[in-house]
TrEMBL record:
Protein name: Synaptophysin-like protein 2a
Gene field: sypl2a
Protein species of origin: Carassius auratus (Goldfish)
Record membrane topology: Multi-pass membrane protein
Entry's transmembrane regions: 97-121, 133-153, 194-212
Pfam annotation, one family: MARVEL
Length: 234
């Protein structure tokens, strides 16, 4: 209880940092970070093709979704010779998808923490060089992570598109089957997730410059004396 009182006593809301690039870009990072992991996590899609045996038309549907362990669900193909084949989508792309979402969630938490720090504890942030320096290091690390995870997820998404393309799935049909593509999976949401990932890379990398200006690396610790002071001392 005493700790909470100390924390609340030091809180002083000041919306001024939102008018500066440091705070404004951090809010943009917060928004685009949410967009990045929200468009990937929870995705559910399906791909369909029809099998025409003359007197019977069968619709084959293969469902898939985040985290894109495609062989986890099977779909059945009822061939025209009355045989049934349980088939699986090929490829496990969960590592790149989960890494992308993990970076997004961690970035969201860090943005939330720093926005509270900027707006409520600005005096604590600026009273020493430690706050801006740590902020610069962490922001630089996140910029690198966004580069890695967005590139990895972009490659993983390309493989997901190939593995769920119904034009490739109908290759499992027998020669006497008449398989025709019905619907392609909707990938617009996943395409936007990769775009949001690289937008986050630009935002986090660009924000490093504005945070750098708050550090002692940009501001000299002991500013040189002015000319008048030099003359008076002499």
């Amino acid at each position: 209880m005493e700790i909470v009182q100390k924390v609340m006593s030091g809180f002083s809301l000041d919306l001024g940092p939102l008018k500066e690039p440091l705070g404004f870009i951090r809010v943009l990072e917060w928004i685009f970070t949410i967009c990045a992991f929200a468009t990937t996590g929870g995705y559910v899609g399906s791909t369909q093709f029809t099998l025409n045996c003359g007197s019977k038309i069968d619709q084959v549907t293969a469902d898939f979704g985040y985290p894109f362990r495609l062989p986890s669900k099977s779909y059945e193909i009822h061939h025209c010779n009355s045989s049934t084949n349980a088939t699986y989508l090929q490829g496990d792309f969960s590592s790149s998808a989960e890494f992308f979402v993990c970076v997004g969630v961690l970035g969201f938490l860090y943005c939330t923490f720093t926005i509270i720090l900027y707006l409520g504890y600005q005096q604590v942030y600026r009273e020493s060089n430690r706050g801006p320096t740590i902020d610069l290091i962490v922001t630089g690390i996140f910029a690198f992570l966004w580069l890695v995870c967005s590139s990895a997820w972009g490659k993983g998404l390309t493989d997901v598109k190939y593995s769920t393309n119904p034009e490739n799935l109908i290759k499992a049909c027998l020669p006497e089957d008449h398989c025709v593509v019905k619907t392609y999976p909707s990938m617009g949401r996943l395409n936007s997730s990769v775009l949001f990932g690289f937008l986050n890379l630009l935002l986090w990398a660009g924000n490093c410059w504005f945070i750098y200006k708050e550090t002692p690396f940009h501001k000299p610790a002991n500013p040189p004396p002015n000319v008048e002071e030099g003359v008076s001392t002499s």
